[in-house]
Amino acid sequence: xxxxxxxxxxxxxxxxxxxxxxxxxxxxxxxxxxxxxxxxxxxxxxxxxxxxxxxxxxxxxxxxxxxxxxxxxxxxxxxxxxxxxxxxxxxxxxxxxxxxxxxxxxxxxxxxxxxxxxxxxxxxxxxxxxxxxxxxxxxxxxxxxxxxxxxxxxxxxxxxxxxxxxxxxxxxxxxxxxxxxxxxxxxxxxxxxxxxxxxxxxxxxxxxxx
Length: 210
Description:
Shape: globular
Structural class: alpha/beta
Strand order of the largest sheet: 1-2-3-4-5-6-7-8
Radius of gyration: 16 Å
Largest sheet: 8 strands, parallel, barrel
Oligomer: single chain
Low-confidence stretches: none
């Protein structure tokens, strides 16, 4: 099994930012200690996605943080990302695994124990579980209870991360659940001081024993 540090998994949202500002925020988040990075672009063309991914990859490599591409196996393969993340309406995990190969990271979204087990059996390296809270991103969300999150953590041997509206002020709800980490978008992307917010989040995660 691949060694993955999903403690603070940063998922991007470039909406409303110039490219320079966006890339600066990505760098500040990695400088602040984000352990895994996902580039999520729902609106860009394939060519735009690849071009931006290549620029983000340069920054990720500088901090030795794996870059995961959301949804798009073709983009991940085209620009040499370390992995891909697929949701329940995207390409099946087994097919993403087949195309990416055994050495790349394949992550999956799971909202139920059944989905978690299926993703694991099909070759997923980690799970994103949620949404724990309502989110402000453009992604359609279905809320997941902390009981379900806890059950998922105990049902599969791969890392499971909580996702959905999480920030330093509300992650206490996860205390005692054996998650591997949390995924955040807005908590970092919309922060006034990205590096400081990332450092604070990481400290809070460690404080909870995650």
